[in-house]
Structures are given as C-alpha cells and as structure tokens.
Amino acid sequence: MHAARFSRFGGPEVLEIVDLPDPHPGPGQVRIAVRAAGVNPSDWKKRKGLMDQELPQTLGYEASGVVDELGEGVSGVAVGDRVFGFSAEEGVQAELAVLSYYAPIPPSLDFPHAAALPAAIETATRALDQLGAEAGRTLLINGASGSVGSAAVQLAVVRGVRVIGTASPANHEYLRSLGAEPVGYGEGLLDRVRALAPDGVDLALDVAGSGVLPELIKLAGGPDRVVTIADFAGAQEHGVTFSRGDTGRAVHALAEIGELIESGRFCLPVAQTFPLAEIAQAHRVSEDGHGRGKLVLLVG
Fold first, then answer.
1. What is the pLDDT along the chain (300 residues), one digit of tens a residue?
2. How many domains does the chain have?
3. Residue 60 near residue 90 (C-beta atoms within 8 A)
4. Fewest 10 Å CB contacts: which of 59, 68, 201, 235?
5. 257 lies in a domain?
6. What distance in Å separates the CA atoms of residue 58 and residue 117, rounded to the nearest whole number?
C-alpha cells in the first residue's frame, strides 16, 4: 500500500509517499480502505523532531473509510460499513489503516468530514471530563476557534455550560454561532473576561498554548481548575493538568457524536483538503496555523 512517511527530520520536503506492507487487524480491531485522514499539528511537530525521536515514522492516527477486514472477536460492524476512528499505533495516512477505536459515520457526513472528527472530539471531551465541566458552570476556552477549541465550545454548550472563548476578532461571530461569548486574546485578557464574568470563571481550558496559564489560573481561582492540551512546560511550571491521550482516551466521544451531528447541535468544518500526494503542502498550511476548521488528506 502507499503511505506517507519520513526517514529524517526537517521541513515538509522530507515527506515521501512509499510502498509499505499491508497491515492486518488484531483482536477487536478493523481494517479500513482509507478514504480520508486528518492532519494535526502533532504531525509537523513530529516531522521536525520536536516529539518522537524514532525514524522512520508513518504519520496519522485518525481516519475514515470502508471496513475491508475484521479482527478476531469483532462484532457489530461488517465488511463494507463506513466507519471513522483512531489507530492505536498511527500510520493511517495511507491506503489501508487498522483502527482500534471506531464508530459508524453519521449518515449526513462524507468521508472528509468524518475524518476531521476523532482527534478534535476526543481531545475536547477528555479535557471537559477532566475539568468536570457540567451544567451551570462557566468555562473559559483559550483558543476557541480552531478544530479542538470549536469542538470543546459545542460539547460544553450541549452540557449546559456557559462558554467564554478567546479568538481573533475575525472569528468572534463564528464563536457566537457556536454558542460562546467571544473575547479577544492578548494583553488585557483578565479585564475583558471579567467584564463578562465579574467574579471570574469556574474552569479554564487552554487549547492555544500561548503562555496565558497564569491569567487562566487567576480567572478560574486556582491551577486545579485549569487544563491545558498545548503547554506542557507551562503546566509543569504552574501546577496545571496537561491532558494527553496516553493517559486514557475519551473514546466514548466517537459513539456519542453522531446524535449531536444529526440533530444539528455539532458541526466541525473542514478548512481544506489535499490529495495524499500533496501531504507536504498540508503540513505547510498546518504549520502556518491560521486556518479555521480541519485539514484533511483525501486517500481513496
């Protein structure tokens, strides 16, 4: 099968499309003929050597496609079904992928929009669960207009949470459409948030990693009320929880999202799609970091 990988660290030019052996599912897993795969900031961070140090690496851990092989003990899904989900070992930016966690694609979604879901909804749900975000609480989300941020806004609103979200002025109307109260990020954040919530907020989620953890701690009333998914060093420095998937994924989000999508209570836009052969350009756009919505590779 064809797959995207790199054998040395560097810029987007190190990415190659190579032939690899076809994978096969283990117990409880399914293999899909990949139709689309999500692109995440972790992809270019790994390519640059900022995360995992092993070489070579085949990227991607979220995809959608058509089931073409079942692992031992799999029930409730059949060859030919449309599914989306995660790989436990990455490598889904390829023609075939093994998924360890998966769910049926909601009927109204195409493959690219389904591939955009897993990382954003799992990360957002995990962070909201860790914060204890529930009805009647006020949550500040730093970086609310990206794929994870906008997922967190919508999922929090569904829970009955009041959401205040930081974003650039160009994205304020978008946040309002999702049910959040927007504020600008940058200097003066404390005053802008307190203008909306004079007593501060109950909880804060940092998606952007822009060095604002001290302000979030002040607004939320302590580091135990703040979670970051983007500032590992800041989390260590300030005693804030750093949420990461290897401490337990909120995979229940995959099965729960379909009802929210079909009832019109959740939508995650796809900002741009690229053929697998143009993965280097997808990395350039991802690293630029200014798009709203998800970047997706088209495979099948």
1. 999 999 999 999 999 999 999 999 999 999 999 999 999 988 998 999 988 899 999 999 999 999 999 999 999 999 999 999 999 888 999 999 999 999 999 999 999 999 999 999 999 999 999 999 999 999 999 999 989 999 999 999 999 999 999 999 999 999 999 999 999 988 999 999 999 999 999 999 999 988 999 999 999 999 999 999 999 999 999 999 999 876 678 899 999 999 999 999 999 999 999 999 999 999 999 988 766 789 999 997
2. 2
3. yes
4. 68
5. no
6. 20
Asked if the structure places residue 252 within a domain, the reply is no
CA-nearest of 110, 90, 106 to 98 is 90
- Predicted TM-score (pTM) of the model is 0.93
Identify which of 241, 230, 275, 292 has the alpha carbon closest to the alpha carbon of residue 15: 275
Q: Measured in whole angstroms, how far is the alpha carbon of residue 84 from the centre of its chain? A: 14
CATH of the domain at 171: 3.40.50.720
Q: Which backbone phi and psi does 31 adopt, to 5 degrees?
A: -105, 140
Range(s) of the domain holding residue 213: 121-246
For 267, counting Cβ atoms within 10 Å of its Cβ (0-12 exposed, 13-18 middle, 19+ buried), the class is middle
Rounded to 10 deg, the angle between the 189-196 and 213-220 helix axes is 30
Helix (H, G, I), strand (E, B) or coil at 92: coil
- Are residues 47 and 20 part of one domain? yes
Rounded Cα–Cα distance for residues 141 and 148 (Å)? 10
The answer to whether residue 264 sits within a structural domain is: no
Q: How many CB atoms lie within 10 A of CB 77?
A: 16
pLDDT of residue 108: 96
Whether residue 150 sits in one domain with residue 110: no
Task: Please report how the helices 147-158 and 252-262 are oriented relative to each other, as an axis angle in degrees rounded to 10.
Answer: 80
Q: Report yes or no on 62 lying in a domain.
A: yes
Burial of 79 (0-12, 13-18, 19+ CB in 10 A): exposed
